[in-house]
Specification:
50% of the residues lie in helices and 12% in strands. By secondary structure, the protein is of the alpha/beta class. Strands 1-2-8-7-3-4 form a 6-stranded mixed sheet, with helices on both faces. The protein is globular and about 65 Å long. The two termini are 22 Å apart.
């Protein structure tokens, strides 16, 4: 791995400072510096770090608390996933609607198939049909109305899927899904006020998320002082997906960064084991020998 490369770009559109670095310890060090800078000398100033997953948040907390990054620990720093932040900011915006659960979605799918199975007549009672359509509903919920109309125009089968989606959604009027939560949070008229208690926002290691969540993150970053820490892998396909997500959020990730030559990490050998326990033993053996 070559030397750590870090650039800083100021993005006016969402008032966010973008730090481009590498994965691993370099990204953790960038996060530590960003938290210190965000607090501006006030140790108890609130900071909210948006992480790709709860596991990533746990790893970041442990790294920050280890003292290996040049900080003696942090206080009043909250770690949340993009959807959890949307949930917190959407409170009160979806009154009268309940969270959509898998059993409720499955019941809506079965009811729609019973009313009109379309192309699924011969398999409408098969469990896999219900599961596949439930996944399709989740994916299509992240697509705008205009996008669904564009899909509808791609032949009879595509039109049937959209018609079935509309039928399923008609049975879910009293429920909201993740896309609804993200849109409700993003479209709050008082977003700049309700986001104040979260303090400085740090979007740590952006990765592919749904379009509604990416749009919500853009709205949140535009409503509060913010920093984005994005890591390069050195692989165009992976880095391109990160850039696309940031683009949906309205954060400008200059194309020049994608063209920079960053050597991706490569394995020098492979260890094959039989199970997870043996994997841990083999790893420990490699560390101590």
């Amino acid at each position: 791995m070559g030397a750590t490369v870090t650039w800083v770009v100021y993005v006016v559109a969402v008032r966010a400072k973008v730090v481009v670095t590498e994965y691993g310890r370099a990204a953790s060090a960038s996060l530590a510096r960003a938290i210190v800078d965000a607090k501006v000398g006030a140790a108890l100033a609130p900071v909210t770090v948006v992480v790709p997953s709860n596991f990533a948040g746990l790893a970041a907390r442990r790294m920050l608390g280890s003292g290996d990054l040049g900080v003696a620990g942090v206080a009043n720093v909250n770690f949340v996933t993009p959807f959890r932040l949307a949930e917190l900011l959407a409170v009160g915006e979806l009154r009268g609607r309940k969270p959509l659960t898998k059993p409720v979605l499955g019941a809506a799918v079965r009811r729609a198939l019973a009313d009109d199975p379309w192309h699924f007549r011969n398999v409408r009672d098969h469990r896999s049909t219900e599961q596949a359509l439930s996944v399709a509903v989740g994916e299509l919920s992240n697509v705008s109305a205009a996008g669904r109309e564009a899909i509808r125009s791609h032949g009879d089968h595509a039109a049937a899927i959209i018609e079935l989606f509309d039928a399923i959604k008609s049975h879910l009027q009293g429920f909201h899904d993740e896309a609804d939560v993200a849109r409700a949070a993003a479209h709050r008229n008082d977003l700049s006020q309700v986001i104040l208690p979260f303090g400085h926002l740090i979007w740590h290691l952006p990765g592919p998320v749904s379009t509604p969540l990416a749009s919500f993150l853009g709205a949140a970053l535009g409503a509060a002082p913010a920093t984005v820490i994005v890591a390069l892998s050195g692989t165009a396909a992976a880095d391109g997906e990160v850039a696309r997500t940031m683009g949906i959020a309205g954060v400008d990730f200059p194309q020049a960064h994608l063209d920079d030559e960053t050597e991706p990490p490569r394995a020098d050998h492979i260890i094959s084991v039989t199970d997870a326990d043996e994997e841990v033993r083999a790893l420990l053996l490699q560390i101590i020998t």
